[in-house]
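Entry 14. Structure prediction run on the chain below.
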Amino acid sequence: MEQFFLILPALVCPVGMGLMMWLMMRGRGRSDQPATPDQEQELATLRAQIEALRPAPADFDGRHPAPRPGGSPAA
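Output returned:
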C-alpha cells in the first residue's frame, strides 16, 4: 500500500496532462463555425475604425528624406 502512494504522484501528472490536452483539442472545433451576421457587421465596423486611426503616410521631400530602416536618426 505504501508503494501505491509513492507511485500515485508519478501517475497523476501524465494523466492530468492528457486530460488537459484532450479538453483543449475538444474546444478547438467550435472556432470553425461560420460567423453570424452580427459578428460580420461588428468585424466590418472594427476594420473601418482601424483604418480611420492609421496615420496617413507623410509626404517627404528633398529637405526631409524618408528614413531608412536600421539607419541612425542623425544620418
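DSSP finds two helices and no strands in the chain.
Filed with the rest of this week's runs.
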